[in-house]
Amino acid sequence: MLVFLLTMGEFGAPAFLRLDVFPVASFTQSSAFYNFGAATAAAVPLVGIVLSCVLISEELLGNRDYSFRWTSDDRVMRIPLGRRSPLALLAVIALAVLMIGMPLAGVLWRGASATALAHAIQHAGGSAVRGVLYAAIASSIICILGFFLAYILQRRALAGWWWLDALTLFLFTLPGAIIGIGLIALWNRPSTNWVYSSPALLIMGLVAQYAALGTRTILAGFSQLPLSLEEAAEIAGAGWFRRVLTILAPFSGQRHWPRGSWRSSFACGT
Questions:
Q1: Listed residue (168, 166, 176) closest to 146, CA to CA
Q2: What's the Cα-to-Cα distance from 94 to each of 81, 82, 211, rounded to whole Å?
Q3: Phi, then psi, of 242 in degrees rounded to 5
Q4: H-run or E-run covering 34
């Protein structure tokens, strides 16, 4: 379902290939003709499909919790192919060369000259620096926001936690062009022009679309963390922020639990 929604909402490849799909049609109406009504109308069917898929997915999955099972047993992590292993290996290699290797080689062949590299650095060097800076800021905000969203989802801390989870997934699968149109319609006003003309608008769009990645990643770590650790620290008198800083944040990202880790976390809580 995620792959279907992401590919249907992909904008970059169809725009370069000049294919008339929903994201390209919506973006064209807004950027070329400045017709936000037509752009919104072109995006409505896609938004409806995304919302329907998200609601169906949440209904089918229910309130189940999912977590990774780390193991050192290689037999659990491998699929036995028997005599078909060489054929499967060759098929995967051929597919990778055809779909990734050859296009990438063509791009490198055209842009590997010293003249092309110097021209790119001269005209796009500042853009590259700004892109890295904006991405670093957005990813840092996503990590912090994802941590607290994951805590709310794991602990069911709010009454509307289900809708919060569905909203992050909905924004993640929603095409970036539609999110951009919504941000423009919201902030392109005289009173909020200071936000509209700043990089904050781009950072807000990145955080809105990719908050689900940070939330789901940290949620997987929370699902492996015993609830008794936080409960023991709470009984010992540790406040919520202290439990977050000394127990949840350090241990939620650990792949393997060291021996005696529960004792050290309890000591931190006390």
A1: 168
A2: 18, 20, 35
A3: -70, -35
A4: none
Alpha-carbon distance of 144 to 141, in angstroms, equals 5
- Assess contact for 73 and 50: CB atoms under 8 A: no
CA distance 67 to 58: 17
pLDDT for residue 14 is more than 70: yes
Report how far residue 269's alpha carbon sits from residue 234's, in angstroms, rounded to the nearest whole number: 7
CA 104, CA 98: separation in Å to the nearest integer?
10
| Helix, strand, coil abundance in the chain, percent, nearest 5 | 80, 0, 20
Residue where the block lists tokens 């990590």: 143
Q: Whole-number mean pLDDT of the chain?
A: 79
CA distance from start to end of the chain: 45
Q: Which two tokens stand for residue 255?
A: 């792949």
pLDDT tops 50 at residue 81: yes
Q: DSSP letter string over 154-180?
A: HHT-STTHHHHHHHHHHHHHS-HHHHH
Contacts of 91 (CB under 8 A, 6+ apart): none
Identify which of 59, 63, 60, 65 has the alpha carbon closest to the alpha carbon of residue 220: 65
Mean pLDDT of 1-29: 81
